[in-house]
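Students often ask what a holo structure prediction actually looks like on paper. The answer is less mysterious than it sounds. You provide the chain, you provide the ligand, and the output is a string of discrete structure tokens encoding the 3D arrangement of the protein together with zinc ion.
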Amino acid sequence: MRLAIQLAEGASGQTGINPVVGCVLVKDGRIVGMGAHLKRGTAHAEIHALQMAGPEAEGSTAYVTLEPCSHFGKTPPCSDRLIKEKVKRVVVACSDPNPLVAGSGFERLRSHGLDVDVGVLQAEASQLNEAFTHFIQTRRPFVTLKTASTLDGKIASRSGDSKWITGPAARAYVHTLRHRNQAIMVGIGTVLSDDPLLTTRLEVPALHPIRVIVDSGLKLPLTAQVVTDRSAETIVLTTENADAAKREALEAAGITVLLCGSGQQVDLRLAMVKLGERDIGSLLLEGGGKLNGAMLENGLIDKMLLFYAPKIIGGNGAPGNFSFGGFELMKDAIELERLTVQQFGSDVCLTGYPRYR
Ligand code: AOF
Ligand code: ZN
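The corresponding structure tokens follow.
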């Protein structure tokens, strides 16, 4: 199962809204097949492993990180194929949260006489698919916030300097997060001040997320890198009040413009629904402070990775990592659950899941 989880993890970020899944087939103490689901619309993990095993699949044990499917989606059901190839036993890490499957895969296998065990390395396996689980249940993207700030919570100095707050190890890790998320979102303020590219830059080739810019007043310049650079798609979220001529100009430049509500500001909840409708199941939020604050106030951040550099920059008015009205009392503060701490060079990263009251 550990090997199956490694196979699944290796494909993180490349399966779109589909889960990552690994499968290892073992017979008489030998691995006879292994596989991973690599891309939405292509074969599931079990099918690759069965293909590799050929006739040796008969009488084998399958170790699968997710409940084998029982439905006809883009591919036929894996449980039927395991039955057909005469696999004897199926060991599964976690059940499939997809309502089309949820338990019926196990039922199908058991009703055909296969032994089924569930729950082996369950926590590790379900962690891999936290975005998939969220999306399949809510149809909204799983939002992971990433910030990089000084110990006093600043994301730039009072003059606006922000290069660099954290060191190379933390920054490289952030690029792996970009590979692992289907989309990346920033506010127009960040685009105007930094003119970022928002692509994935690693020492090895990687996938670029879809760029999402929150821009209520449609201030995005046609000369911004997120407009002119063609290596990734760009979506602009704005309101129904946005200037029609500017909208047409952006669309003519190949940008998708989504109208989210008729207020002064983009309706962020509606925006998440619209991104979900476009099969965006995971979103990396890279701020700035105002957008981070607004997303937090709306209860739309599901996970946070807060990088802190061991520096204090001070500066009254220097931008902070969360800018919003806040709460009167400490007891009302948003708390992070399941907190873990990692070190990247001299920087630390706190990872946690906000609990909204
Ligand atoms: C498995 N093994 O490797 C994966 C599964 O559209 P489809 O046919 O690819 O089906 C997608 C659904 O199948 C997905 O939502 C999830 O429930 C399940 N994924 N199941 O047995 C796999 N990737
Ligand atoms: Zn399947």
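The pocket of zinc ion (ligand 2) is lined by residues 44, 68-69, 78 (CB under 6 Å).
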